[in-house]
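Fold this: HNH endonuclease
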Amino acid sequence: MTITERPSSAAEGEDLPRRALEAVCARGPIGLAEEIGDATHLLVELLREPQNLFDPEEHGSHDYTQLLGRIHEAGSALGALQAHTVVSHAAATRREDRRAARDQAAHEADVIAPQARTDDRADQRSGKDLSLITRRSPSEASHALRASRRLVESMPNLLGALTDGKITADIAHKAASKAGSLEPEECRELDRLLGERLPDLDGAGTRRWGQEISAAIQGLDPDGAVGRHQRARRERCVTLRPGEHGMATLSARLPGIDAAQAHKRLSLEAERLRADGDRRGHQAIMADVLVDTILGRDDQMDPTTLDIGLIITDRALFSPDDGEIAQVEGYGAVPAEAVREQLRAALRDPKAPQEDRYGPDGPTVRAVLRRLYTHPTSGELVAVESKAKVFPSALARFLRWRDLSCRGPFCNAAIRQSDHIVPRSTGGPTSIDNGQGACAHDNGKEEHFRSVRRIPQPPGGGHRVEWTSPNGISRTTSPPPLTRPSRTPAAEPEASPPRAGPREDSPPDGGTLEGPPDGGTLKDGTASEAARPDAPPEATPPDFLPPDDAGPGAQPDGQPPEPDQRE
């Protein structure tokens, strides 16, 4: 007699998800479509008859926080699922068209069309289906197909991050689209580099992600970056797009450095006018001053000296093949070739004074290079501390150059104020470690967040700030690295990377820093004094910041004062 033990109810419960998963996989795409259809039907019915589901009198904000988290996770997983489905749909269409081409050639004794032409027609058919299903234009659908194919076949780290809800579908497709100029091996390397940066980009917005992707691509393909910049530069233009209610949008496609200078000039003029009592909004003043200056009206801006941060290593400046990038205050990463070209133009004396691109004040507007420190591990800028209650102009400038855009989670706004992470009123020092660049909204963080704190000794070093919402949701932000962070060599890649979906061509962060740490390097490539064997016990950092003789809050000559800096 054989006795068979029944599995415990706990074991049965643990096995149910696995059995359900296997059942769905066994039924194929149609079965999965039916499961998703059932879930969608349930959601639609809930939205039509929610009863008290969305009644704030019955449920607290914590309940809706949990629901929002699950909705985001489901949306990210569906985004990854859609990418897989789009690629498999295109692969199946290619296979069907190849089979049809072979059958037609066999029946009509005709020559089989080249496979590339057949595949191109198949992709067009797939794009049409995707366009009609997702209600996108044919151009957008074709673009999404190419990005999805690259994401699924060559970018497993970002696809996994999308599946787990660590990035959005927009970020994943942005990376895949920008990688279109890379070879498959370079695309996989880009994916690996971005995968390593995921902890540092936890709270990064779309603007910061775009900068990181562009910087990584330039590092992988420096020769191609020069050509891409030169081609893009030839596409300079000004366009006019009619708007609603008698308004219009005037757009200028410019080199990044010129655009950043123009934007900062307008912003500073708006701050000056508001300080003098102008009650118009900041953005409205910028628009009005731009038009007044272009049309030569009485209210146009006066010529002035403009100081804008342009941060580049000596290696990027003099070694084009090194692959490093430059950073422009108010803009972000630009190809080093753009900076070299601008510096050559800025430092070149005109043949005649009337030909000076900067006008009569040209000699005073030439570029000024300052020596800056970088952290040897994270590649971020590091500096010194002040005893002032507000950030002196040099430290405020340093925060703008280090952070480049607002440090608030997922914020893409420009830096308007210098913020104490630990408020000055509670004992926070006025230092680089306790400072960050912020927009006006995120400078009021004490009103919107449960806590904002700097993470001590994060893996890889650098400056990491954790922002926690009232309901306990935490995100971490960090500055963009000027140089590529140091990392351990990658393991040998497998013979064939994992691929999701059928092949398309087959038949049926360390501590508080006040100057360069021991062993650090200066931006001119030389070792710091602390790293030299014969250095004195307490090395003095070089004078890389301008003096603050004018007192806290002073600005360089010719510039209006900084906006009010809250604590």
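Residues 1-5, 365-371, 487-567 have pLDDT under 50 and may be disordered. Residues 154 and 496 are 11 Å apart (CA to CA).
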